[in-house]
Amino acid sequence: MPELPEVETVRRALERRVLGRVITDYEVGRPAFNRPIPAEALRGLKGSRITAVHRRGKYLLLHLSQGGRLVCHLGMSGSISFSGDEGHVRFRFTAGGVTVRIHDPRRFGRVGCRLPELGPEPLSPAFRPDSLFSALSGRRAPVKALLLDQAVVAGVGNIYATEALYRAGIRPDRPARRVTRAEAGRLCREIKLVLRRAIRAGGTTLNDQAFKDPEGRPGRFALMTAVYGRETGACGHALKATARPIAGRTSLYCPRCQA
Ligand SMILES: [Zn+2]
Questions:
Q1: Does residue 133 sit in the same domain as residue 103?
Q2: Is 15 designated active site?
């Protein structure tokens, strides 16, 4: 699933190609997404100029000169491309001669104009050790489940939660309320660090999740993971999966470096 660094990579590519351009045409695929695109999102789209391309968590926001905005979420398997493969195109628009295609084989993505309630942006000053500590304290749920909760922190998914917990020395299945203040501080720092490194690498591309940026280039972060997608951790120890999946996901950790 595209997480914050992949969506940010897409955002930057869109900004380079379509910022300031006028949308001359659009087309909704048949079938489109599982959730239909609301009419209000499409109203006035043609003829609008794209005045800003923002990101919030895993959502892309295209602000439009007619006053509205287009909010896109790539779901489980969605991608955006400027060219190539026509398969599974759920939505496309042309702005300044560039055609932007949203592909989504599984149709879980969405296009609309509303954002759900989201927690702090992890790379902003609003995401701080004390705010993370208070979000974790008193909660019985595994710490990783809370990191995946978009109301606790926006944009973190399985890959980057796994990496940050490893680097902070915290087992993913530890009850959140047993994370100390100092550990929450370390975890907050590691989340920021791992997301920044992944953005610099253009996101993560794995065999089973073939992320490519809209220009068709794969991300390079998979080459740098310490845990995710590996059998042996960066520490040299054999990795284990938690006894139960967390939020439906297999969760790897190092039994010697994480407690
Ligand atoms: Zn280890």
A1: no
A2: no
Query: How many domains, the chain?
Result: 2
What pLDDT was estimated at residue 130?
Answer: 97
Catalogue the long-range contacts made by 227-234 (C-beta closer than 8 Å, 24 or more residues apart). 227/162, 227/163, 227/166, 227/252, 227/253, 227/254, 228/158, 228/159, 228/162, 228/163, 228/204, 228/252, 233/166, 233/257, 234/166
Compute the distance from residue 229 Cα to the ligand 1 centre, in Å: 15
Structure-block tokens of residue 253: 């950790």
Instruction: State percent of the chain over pLDDT 70.
Output: 98
C-alpha distances (whole Å) from 204 to each of 27, 165, 195 are 29, 17, 11
Q: Are residues 102 and 133 in the same domain?
A: no
Q: Note if 117 is an active site residue.
A: no
d(CA 217, CA 219): 7
Catalytic residue among 11, 17, 58, 212: 58
> What pTM, to 2 d.p., does this model score?
0.95
